[in-house]
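Please fill in the sequence for the structure shown.

STRUCTURE ENCODING:
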């Protein structure tokens, strides 16, 4: 299956329903794929590249994405990832309050573009919901921790998923943000980058009374 971003075809196997939405938005959705991730993480200067992209992406004014509700009602996956303390964790640990899970990577420009707005959301909504950003970098903390140290974020913490367990469970592309209600049931997901301080994001959150 192909997702198109600008003039480049981005390959990743997606759920058929997502694929149909992607075709409708061909040429406008911003996504990142496993093939590109493998290539860009091969070099030893990954951390430096990522920090440079972070500075550049902060000035991005356009966020391209699609909203997918086809998984509404599905339970959060039991996939294991790692918290800021390097202890294994699953999404079940966050059950009891609404949860927004952002799947991203340090090498993914659309991911970096939305990160400051996601950090602001985490700060604004900290009493009403939990927001976590789970990096899908294969090198894990070795590249994610340095990125966080340079990014200047105030609320988000460095969760990592070097096995890509959450991304594989979502059968999606990067970035993908999935909203779960307090019972751990999916409400909607955003595929691509969105301005979490913008009107579209606020409308989505309003669906959950946030």
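FILLED IN BY: designer on duty
SEQUENCE:
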């Amino acid at each position: 299956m192909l997702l198109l971003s600008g003039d480049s075809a981005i390959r990743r196997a997606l759920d058929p329903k997502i694929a149909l939405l992607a075709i409708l938005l061909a040429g406008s959705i911003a996504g990142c794929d496993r093939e590109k991730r493998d290539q860009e993480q091969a070099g030893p200067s990954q951390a430096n590249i990522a920090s440079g992209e972070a500075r550049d992406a902060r000035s991005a004014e356009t966020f391209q994405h699609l909203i997918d509700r086809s998984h509404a009602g599905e339970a959060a996956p039991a996939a294991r990832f790692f918290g800021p303390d390097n202890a294994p964790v699953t999404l079940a640990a966050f059950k009891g309050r609404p949860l927004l899970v952002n799947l991203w990577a340090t090498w993914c420009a659309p991911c970096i573009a939305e990160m400051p707005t996601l950090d602001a959301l985490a700060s604004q909504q900290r009493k009403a919901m939990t927001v976590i950003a789970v990096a899908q970098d294969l090198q894990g903390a070795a590249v994610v921790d340095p990125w966080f140290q340079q990014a200047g974020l105030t609320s988000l913490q460095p969760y990592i998923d070097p096995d890509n367990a959450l991304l594989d469970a979502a059968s999606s592309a990067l970035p993908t943000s999935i909203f779960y209600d307090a019972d751990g049931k999916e409400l909607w997901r955003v595929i691509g980058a969105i301005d979490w301080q913008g009107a579209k994001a606020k409308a989505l959150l309003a669906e959950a009374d946030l």
